[in-house]
């Protein structure tokens, strides 16, 4: 795992080309959407760029060494869900897309929660068993998935966004996919592979 860089410039230079391409895509999309008179889409591109920059921010603002898979995975996941899923309508075209996105995000959140817990435990000299790490990873991922569903409900209620296409069926499917993804992530943590 690479050591945290000393500067933002070093962190930017150390990013994977896939991450650069996704960042560039959203940097171009923001003014294009504004020029097309689509402020909501411009905001979505801006928010997506912010999500893609999270690993860089963590790398620059903490002593936590962010693995390459986290950086690339975050960029690809955001692109797959926001651009492919929303703009190219994969959520409607591919019935499994939503469940796969929720399961993948939950597994990634579980792995990242374990990474942060390992880092914090090392910093204070504590020893965490694989089972403890897996439990924290699982509960963190399930909680994040539930918070996401609350956010979708709020968007639908206050902004008439229709993110929960089938209502309860969509929400329950998402929660089940989140839980299964969290279980896979926790299992990988317990095995020591995440």
From TrEMBL:
Transmembrane annotation, as ranges: 18-36, 42-58, 65-84, 96-116, 128-151, 171-189
InterPro entries: YjdF-like
Pfam families: DUF2238
Domain of life: Bacteria
Entry keyword set: Membrane, Transmembrane, Transmembrane helix
Protein name (database record): DUF2238 domain-containing protein
């Amino acid at each position: 795992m690479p050591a945290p860089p000393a500067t933002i410039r070093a962190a930017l230079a150390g990013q994977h080309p896939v991450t650069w391409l996704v960042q560039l895509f959203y940097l171009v999309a923001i003014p294009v959407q504004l020029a097309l008179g689509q402020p909501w889409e411009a905001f979505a591109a801006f928010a997506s760029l912010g999500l893609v920059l999270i690993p860089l921010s963590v790398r620059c603002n903490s002593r936590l060494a962010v693995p390459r898979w986290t950086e690339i995975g975050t960029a690809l996941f955001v692109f797959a869900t926001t651009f492919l899923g929303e703009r190219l309508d994969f959520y409607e075209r591919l019935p499994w897309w939503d469940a796969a996105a929720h399961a993948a995000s939950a597994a990634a959140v579980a792995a990242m929660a374990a990474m942060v817990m390992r880092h914090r435990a090392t910093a204070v000299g504590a020893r965490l068993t694989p089972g403890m790490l897996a439990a924290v990873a699982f509960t963190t991922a399930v909680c994040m998935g539930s918070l996401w569903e609350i956010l979708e409900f709020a968007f639908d209620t206050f902004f008439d966004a229709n993110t929960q296409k089938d209502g309860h069926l969509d929400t329950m499917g998402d929660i089940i996919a989140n839980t299964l993804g969290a279980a896979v992530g926790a299992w990988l943590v317990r095995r020591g592979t995440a």
